[in-house]
Amino acid sequence: MSPALEALMQAEGTPYPGKGVMLEPFVHQVGGHSCVLRFGEQTICKPLIPREHQFYKSLPPEMRKFTPQYKGVVSVSFEEDEEGNLCLIAYPLHSESGDLENKDPSTDCEPKSKMVKWSNKKQSPLGPENDNYSKDRGRHSRKEDKIMSHVEDMQQQAEVLYFSLEKGNVVSQIKHNPWSLKCHQQHLQRMKENAKHRNQYKFILLENLTWRYRVPCVLDLKMGTRQHGDDASEEKKANQIRKCQQSTSASIGVRLCGMQVYQSEPGQLMFMNKYHGRKLTLAGFKEALYQFFHNGHRLRHELLSPVLRRLREMQAALEACESYRFYSSSLLIIYDGDPPRAPTRPRHRGGEEGDEDDRSSHSAGEASSPVVDVRMIDFAHTTCRHYGEDSVVHEGQDSGFIFGLQNLITIISELEDHSAD
């Protein structure tokens, strides 16, 4: 295990090196189908896909400020504690070399002689105040399975949901969103079904982009005019082409994949899922963007300029990326739905690589401006000429992704112009 990963497990997981860390649902996942889990306050993890792992390991320097920081690989197993509750536990790998395709990682795991409970010294800023919730939210009882199943049924019926929050401590009430619960339940079910044959999987550790925000508002946008990878089956290819043709992906190179926004005036959270996003016309997409930047009382126009600046920086970086294709990648836009009342210095990520990049969102003269973040995520179908085994090598820029960025910049610029009127 690398010293950096050992330090991470001690700081964010448990203070015992070489032991396990109980993984929790990541409550701010608004899109995608892969299960994202909370490893610690500043770190999430997701199943390792070799192509995505290769991308993070060979990331061009100019792209680092636009992607989550990569923190390593862990081995995750599905276990029951003494009370029969189901848990996902992360253990350090002895080495990152060798097999990285989740085929037989059994030799990479630490012995599981006893269950290690999640340390409640580190409280999530978005979890309720009581310690029992912190300790127990990584466990899943049979009763909870029924609740999650009910949430999934509700999610299938409602593509836009509103959750009313009581006035007062809003932060303590944000325990989950319906999409993260859906993905989490499906992943647990798959692991449970496979447990007899295989119970250890590799996950990659990535920076939690929401950790600095009290109430993260998150917009997940699927970018580009094409979503299928070069290695997609004919069935998958046809399915992805159909989704693009029937949505705003074909016309403007971007479609809504998920959204969570806090509307402070009515005191509610609004969630919008990918099924609703696929149905949106161009006018509907513009309306959804307006809703994302609206707090129920007014448009948060002060967010628009920092977001536009970041998008333009990203466009310049992508135009310099030769032969990359970011098929099926998403763009995340994040801001705080409940910002501090008085101007304060933003929380920095204690010496982590990328601190300087965060500060690019607000120059020295804008100490009181809102902190926003804009990042690319999900690289399971990314390709470039440096990936030696790929059958197709593309030339030039990813024009589909850049086309989507340009249209997004235009639409948000229109919002900014209207808000200035």
From TrEMBL:
Its EC number is 2.7.-.-. It comes from the Eukaryota. Keywords: ATP-binding, Kinase, Nucleotide-binding, Transferase. GO terms for molecular function: ATP binding; inositol hexakisphosphate kinase activity. The keyword Nucleotide-binding applies. Residues 98-143, 337-368 are annotated as: Disordered. GO terms for cellular component: cytoplasm; nucleus. SUPFAM superfamilies: SAICAR synthase-like (SSF56104). This is Kinase. It comes from Haplochromis burtoni (Burton's mouthbrooder).
